[in-house]
């Protein structure tokens, strides 16, 4: 079988590349071994996890806000079986939608494992070999398991295993305080678990803004989530259906289930990269440039396997870019304004530089403005005042460098920052624009005003008096 473009992997990067290449007139095949399209994200990652996030969000509202806002209901309880049915229905709808889009765009889907046998050929399990002019590799990633004694217990699960649970564990230990670990901690505390997070670094979500991490830690502390930060797990022992998790010097915590969430590694083994001549590293993934071109000019790599970001939305964009280049166009990926959402409660979302990164690059020529949600009428109405909006800009020309949001609907609001940074906007653009009232988006404008020293709904910092005679 001969094709213009062959795509290996049907996740966010792969299916996007396949659809975009077909839109450009190419004859396209997508090779995917799983029974549904959508990859980890749609099947056992972002989508089912966020379906649970929504369940947890409604539980939180019913418990903490309904009565205060005048809505009287019986005490809410979790029906995990119903939540799982909803989760499965959402996944089925989304994965089925990708299959429909393939049919609508004329993309052929070959079900089976694929591997390169030479630079222009893929062998596909149960099918004839596929010949192609260009290929896009989008094989994704797999959970990492650190070499800690006892993690082979059936009570130690990865995110896929946790999503398959039919009962809420009474005690849940989470190894890893990154995005995945924190999201599941937030979910399962709301579901009723006693949650402990063990993180070897000194703070949660260590790649994100320090103020955001500190706010999340405070919120988790108020909710009773135990944080063992700066501690390394040294071993796990199972006895009679219970885990003893050892960490730090001599600390031990008992658990009924343990989530191992220490990161994901690129899926680059057993797909024939050596036969195709594609350069890769088992830890960092496949080498690719801003066009997502690999060391073999007609082969591209996108998404988690390419080692840039491990985010579905970056894979979407990379898939578009790779497809356009594979079809003779010239496109590049711009990583300047990548949104970084964290679906905890409170939500966190950032784009651009953190404050620490900005100060490292620009030194003293950095200004920051913070608007707490308690100063925003819409947040007060919703009984959601934990957190803030922070704007970060360089003070010489006013260019906006970053936005950090902690609080209600942060993951939706961050798009305003994405557009602003993509457009190389100044903080004045942010501050002088009209925000509809009363909305959460007003806090973004107000943060810009704070940074400029002309806040309206918050007291401005008093300027130092000028010395006489100067």
Question: What is this entry, summarized?
Answer:
The protein is of the alpha/beta class. The protein has helices at residues 12-23, 39-44, 46-64, 80-105, 159-163, 179-191, 210-223, 273-276, 312-326, 355-362, 377-381, 410-413, 415-422, 427-432, 442-451, and strands spanning 2-8, 28-32, 108-111, 114-118, 121-124, 130-137, 141-143, 156-157, 171-175, 194-199, 226-229, 233-239, 242-247, 251-255, 257-260, 264-266, 280-281, 285-286, 299-301, 340-342, 348-352, 366-372, 388-394, 400-406.
SSE map:
Elements (H helix, E strand, L loop, with lengths): L1 E7 L3 H12 L4 E5 L6 H6 L1 H19 L15 H26 L2 E4 L2 E5 L2 E4 L5 E8 L3 E3 L12 E2 L1 H5 L7 E5 L3 H13 L2 E6 L10 H14 L2 E4 L3 E7 L2 E6 L3 E5 L1 E4 L3 E3 L6 H4 L3 E2 L3 E2 L12 E3 L10 H15 L13 E3 L5 E5 L2 H8 L3 E7 L4 H5 L6 E7 L5 E7 L3 H4 L1 H8 L4 H6 L9 H10 L19
Parallel strand pairs: 1-2, 1-6, 2-3, 6-19, 8-15, 9-10, 9-15, 10-11
Antiparallel strand pairs: 4-5, 5-6, 7-16, 12-13, 13-14, 17-18, 20-21, 21-24, 22-23, 23-24
Helix pairs in contact: 1-4, 1-9, 3-4, 3-6
Task: Give an overview in words.
The chain is built from 15 helices and 24 strands. It is globular. By secondary structure, it is of the alpha/beta class. Helix content is 33%, strand content 24%. It starts with a strand and ends in a 19-residue tail after the last helix. The longest helix is centred in the first third of the chain and has 26 residues, at 80-105. Strands 1, 2, 3, 4, 5, 6 and 19 form a 7-stranded mixed sheet that branches. It has a 5-stranded parallel sheet with strand order 8-15-9-10-11. A 5-stranded antiparallel sheet has the order 20-21-24-23-22, with helices on both faces. It has helices at residues 12-23, 39-44, 46-64, 80-105, 159-163, 179-191, 210-223, 273-276, 312-326, 355-362, 377-381, 410-413, 415-422, 427-432, 442-451; strands at residues 2-8, 28-32, 108-111, 114-118, 121-124, 130-137, 141-143, 156-157, 171-175, 194-199, 226-229, 233-239, 242-247, 251-255, 257-260, 264-266, 280-281, 285-286, 299-301, 340-342, 348-352, 366-372, 388-394, 400-406.
């Amino acid at each position: 079988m001969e094709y213009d473009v062959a795509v290996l992997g049907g996740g966010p990067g792969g299916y996007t590349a396949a659809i975009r290449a077909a839109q450009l007139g190419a004859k396209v095949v997508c090779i995917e071994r799983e029974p549904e399209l959508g990859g980890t994200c749609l099947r056992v990652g972002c989508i089912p996890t966020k379906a649970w996030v929504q369940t947890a969000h409604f539980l939180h509202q019913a418990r903490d806000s309904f009565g205060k806002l005048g809505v009287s209901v019986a005490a809410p309880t979790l029906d995990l079986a119903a939540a799982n049915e909803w989760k499965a229905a959402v996944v089925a709808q989304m994965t089925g939608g990708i299959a429909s889009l393939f049919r609508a765009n004329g993309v052929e889907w070959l079900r089976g494992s694929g591997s390169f046998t030479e630079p222009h050929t893929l062998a596909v399990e149960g099918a004839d070999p596929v010949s192609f002019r260009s290929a896009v590799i989008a094989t994704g990633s797999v959970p990492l398991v650190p070499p800690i004694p006892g993690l082979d217990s059936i009570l130690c699960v990865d995110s896929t295993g946790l999503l398959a649970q039919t009962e809420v564990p009474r005690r849940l230990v989470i190894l890893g305080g990154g995005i995945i670990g924190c999201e599941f901690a937030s979910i399962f505390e709301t579901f009723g678990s006693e949650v402990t997070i063990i993180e070897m670094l000194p703070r949660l979500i260590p790649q994100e803004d320090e103020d955001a991490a500190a706010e999340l830690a405070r919120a988790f502390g108020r909710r009773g989530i135990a944080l063992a930060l700066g501690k390394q797990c040294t071993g796990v022992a199972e006895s009679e259906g219970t885990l003893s998790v050892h960490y730090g010097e001599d600390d031990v915590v008992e658990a009924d289930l343990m989530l191992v969430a220490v990161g994901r590694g690129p899926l680059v083994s057993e797909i024939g990269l050596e036969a195709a001549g594609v350069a890769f590293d088992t830890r960092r993934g496949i080498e690719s440039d801003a066009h997502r071109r690999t060391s073999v000019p007609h082969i591209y790599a996108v998404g988690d396997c390419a080692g840039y970001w491990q985010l579905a939305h970056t894979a979407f964009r990379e898939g578009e870019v790779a497809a356009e280049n594979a079809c003779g166009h010239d496109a590049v990926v711009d990583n300047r304004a990548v949104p970084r959402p964290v679906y905890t409660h409170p939500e966190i979302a950032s784009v651009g530089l953190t404050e620490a990164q900005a100060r490292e690059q620009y030194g003293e020529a950095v200004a920051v403005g913070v608007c707490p949600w308690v100063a925003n009428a819409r947040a007060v109405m919703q009984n959601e005042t934990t957190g803030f909006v922070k704007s970060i800009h360089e003070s010489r020309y006013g260019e906006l460098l970053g936005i950090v949001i902690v609080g209600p609907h942060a993951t939706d609001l961050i798009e305003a920052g994405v557009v602003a940074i993509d457009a190389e906007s100044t903080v004045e653009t942010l501050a002088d624009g009209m925000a509809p009232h009363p909305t959460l988006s007003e806090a973004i404008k107000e943060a810009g005003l704070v940074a400029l020293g002309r806040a309206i709904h918050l007291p401005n910092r008093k300027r130092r008096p000028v010395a006489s005679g100067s």
